[in-house]
Design goal:
The chain is an alpha+beta fold. Helix content is about 35%, strand content about 10%. It is built from seven helices and six strands; from the N terminus they run βαβααββββαααα. The strands form two sheets. Strands 1-5-6 form a three-stranded antiparallel sheet, with no helix packed on it. Strands 2-3-4 form a three-stranded antiparallel sheet. Strand 3 and strand 4 form a beta hairpin. Helix 2 crosses helix 3. It is extended, with a radius of gyration of 28 Å. The protein starts with about 25 loop residues before the first strand and ends with a helix. About 10% of the residues are buried.
Length: about 190
Amino acid sequence: MQKKGAGNQPSLNKFFVTGALKKAPTKPVVHNVSCPGLGHCQNPWITRYLPLSSACYGGAPHCSALKKQILKFWPQQPGYHRLSLKELQSQIKTAERAQVAWSNDHSVGVVFSTKCTSQAIVEIGSSLVLPCNECRKILHLQIFRNALHCLPSKIQNWKYTPKKYRNELLGKACMQHTSVQEFMEKVCEIL
C-alpha cells in the first residue's frame, strides 16, 4: 500500500527512486566489430595531422637516443666488428620501428595504436562504435598531442624533409596517376 502524505496527498517518496530500483548504468561491451581507430570524432586535429605527416608511424624515441642505446649495448669485445654507418642506420631504423606508439593509416585517415586489440567497443543500446582502449590511450600521450599541434611547414621547405620519411614507391605511383611522370622525364632529359 502506498503511503499517503498530509491531506490525502501522495508522499514525497513517490518521486524518489530507492537505490535498489535504480537502473544500472550501461557499460561498454566489446563486440566482434573491428576497431575504427582514432579519427575526427576522437580529435579533430587528426584530420589535419595525417596529410601533413608522411611518416607511417610515430611516437618512437628520437634517433639520437636510439643510437646511444644501440652503441651502449653493442659488444665491444675482440670477436665483434665495429658497426659501419650503414649498419648503424639500419639498427636505428629497426629499433625505431620496434618502439613506435602509433601507426598512421593515410588511406583511411585514422591513427591506430601499435597495441590495438582490433576489437571495437560498442555501448549497449547505442550504435556508436568506439576505438579500443589501447587506441584511446594514444590520445593521452604528450608526444601524440605535440605531433597533432605541429604547425605545417611552408611549401618551399618541403624539399628539406628527411629522405627516410619519403616513400619513393608511393611518390612514383602518384606521379604516374597524375600524368606528372612524362613531364618529369622530359625535364630530366633536358638537364
